[in-house]
Structure of DYW domain-containing protein:
Amino acid sequence: MYNALIKGFSGENPIKGFEFYVRMLRANIVPDNLSFPFLVRACAQLEGIDMGIQAHGQIVKHGFENDVYVQNSLVYMYSTCGDIKAANEVFSRMLSPNVVSWTSIIAGFNKIGDVEMARELFDKMPERNLVTWSTMINGYAKNNCFEKAVELFQVLKDKGIKANETVMVSVISSYAHLGAIELGEKAHDYVVKNNLSLNVILGTALVDMYARCGSIEKAIKVFDQMPERDVLSWTALIAGLAMHGYAEKAIWFFSKMVNSGLKPRDITFTYLLSACSHGGLVEKGLELFESMKRDYGIEPRLEHYGCVADLLGRAGKLAEAEKFVLEMPVKPNAPIWGALLGACRIHRNAEIAERVGNILIPLLPEHSGYYVLLSNIYARTNRWENVETMRQMMKEKGVKKPPGYSLIEVDGKVHNFKMGDKSHPEIEMIERKWDEILWKIRLAGYTGNTSDALFDIDEEEKENALHRHSEKLAIAYGIMRTEAPAPIRIVKNLRVCEDCHTATKLISKVFGRELIVRDRNRFHHFREGSCSCMDYW
């Protein structure tokens, strides 16, 4: 009876489970091997390592330290609490670890980010079940090893194992991050053909995948087909619309969600305010910000204040944005100051940028992006002494700009391009293709915008660097290997620079191609010489 009560409370009310264990001891009832897995599970639920150690002591005291079910619970508990060393010690002492034991220790290594050790153990397993496969694939996805996640999914399929909804969520999320819509569509087909349930989590993952891969229409279609939606499903769609710059649509879906009886969460407002910022809807954004606490009882967090600062700054209200940040009831963090600095770049305000930079760089001295932003602002006003100061500061502090890369999916394979990287097997053809593209867009008026060059180098050198930016190589490959009317889809890890933005607009006009570029901030849909962001990013 006590075991049943400990088990019942171990999930939803673990403290109560502990209370019943203590009452059992006080009643002079000796615990058995079924008492401890539930007790240890309660510790895992609380992620309370100290309580877990006490439970482990009780296990040793009562002589169950060699029971496989008790050992499994200990491995799971220590893994969940992040003490992989203790988990591994218990696992290493097990005489006959079963599938549950292996899966728990793999999950533990995944949790601390050691996917190499997790995979080593996975490969050593004498037998695996679907939970093990799901744990390893999810581990890769959670640790940003998206290509490895999809590779392992392919191995699972090759072995004739049918994936479940949990596996497909990890796989579809990986395709979303890679921007691989062809592979994402195949995963969607897999879900349909294998009669997997389009539950809330899987449906939300598909909505997010299509939105991140540049097809907001398909995201809306999947959303409409979902038999059940929760607030996170609505938020995923609103986030997708925000990324694509459809501010009015995002607000419309928000109103529809509220009218359906669902209460928005704080993250919903983060995406809503972001949509207003990218859409230039200042008054509506401020109205939504005010409604958070007034209408929904949600206390604005730092990210919401950051969105408002970005909203005002992008609209050119830089003095108002600076005043808003300085008068915030909470101390502004680096991303908030960074949003204001980004607005200074858009509107070429070196005066406010300098004040912001003096606050921002000491806050995050290792963040290269802020040095680059401030340097670019100085470069535009030909303040090369200040640019040199930035360069020296970066050099002294060992700060390096992360390398830019661009991904493009062609025929179900994702190709990765980096500036200066010549490892692609078709790089010579790609570079010749880019030279051809460059010649044609120059005839259409392209001159090359070198204002984003970081340092005062020779103009010809700047142009050579700009013409080998990773997205330009990816676009050249896309034009080589795809045919109209199929859009060319690019995923980029950094913000699109002004020169690449200008060049891509002209490419869309000269070559009659639609290009969809996802950068660090948002989506850009290039059609017939214009961009969906209206040059406002």
